[in-house]
Amino acid sequence: HTDEHVSTLVSEALGGLRQARAEPDVATLLGVGGVQFVMVGMLDVFFALLAIDVLGSGEGGAGVLAGGFGLGLLLGAAGAVGLVGARRLAPAVLVALLGSGGALAALSLASTMTAAVAVLAVCGATIGLFAVASRTLLQRRADDVVLARVFGLEEALQMIGLAIGAAAAPALVS
Predict the structure, then answer these.
(1) How many CB atoms lie within 10 A of CB 155?
(2) What's the CA gap between 118 and 71, in Å, rounded?
(3) Cα-based distances in Å from 104 to 23, 30, 89, 108
(4) CA dist 50 to 44, 99, 139, 145, 173, Å?
(5) 93: Cα within 13 Å, side-chain hemisphere
(6) Residues 60-68: contacts with CB within 8 Å, 24+ apart?
(7) How far from chain centre, in Å, is Cα 138?
(8) Helix axes 113-141 and 59-79, enclosed angle (nearest 10)
């Protein structure tokens, strides 16, 4: 009886993966979200490098940069309230992805702490917008029967992305 119960639990847990395989839009959103978190994982490591080695602001500067990014996340998520009732969310997802990529490219031009914090706030805001818009779009595209499992898969991919990004950052720096 226990083996049957375990088998059922495993089958249920894999429901999100089956949904992603069956629905290309769901798979795309999950994949892009996972890659977005690789970037966030890298940023966690790069804050210290940028603050200490590039901007010369010392160890405390890493916290300031992370704070600017975090403030941007909050503003982006709050700004996503404007999407309530929007029928089409894909354009918001695309704008958010382009915005975060553009902000990271602009970060290479930041030569002061103020500029870096501002650019990281924009990056955070676009990632916050992406998080809300993509999760809402995912909710619309996934089958309600397995939606919780799809969200579980999304969370797992995000954590894997964070780990990959944080692990890859030192290798990329060297």
Answers:
(1) 13
(2) 10
(3) 31, 21, 23, 7
(4) 11, 20, 37, 45, 11
(5) 20
(6) 61/113, 64/113, 64/117, 65/113, 65/116, 65/117, 65/120, 67/117, 68/116, 68/117, 68/118, 68/120, 68/121, 68/124
(7) 14
(8) 40
Amino acid making up residue 16:
G
Helix (H) or strand (E) holding 19: helix 15-22
Query: Residue 31: what residue type?
Result: G
Residues in the chain: 174
What CA–CA distance (Å, rounded) separates 169 from 174? Answer: 9
The whole model's pTM is what?
0.83
Q: pLDDT 10s per residue in the chain (174 long)?
A: 677 766 776 677 677 777 878 888 888 999 999 999 999 999 989 999 999 999 999 889 999 999 999 999 999 989 888 888 888 998 999 999 999 999 999 998 999 999 999 999 999 999 999 999 999 999 888 888 888 888 888 999 999 999 999 999 988 887
CA–CA dist 64, 57 (Å, integer): 10
Residue type, 56: G
Tokens 């990632």, residue located: 127
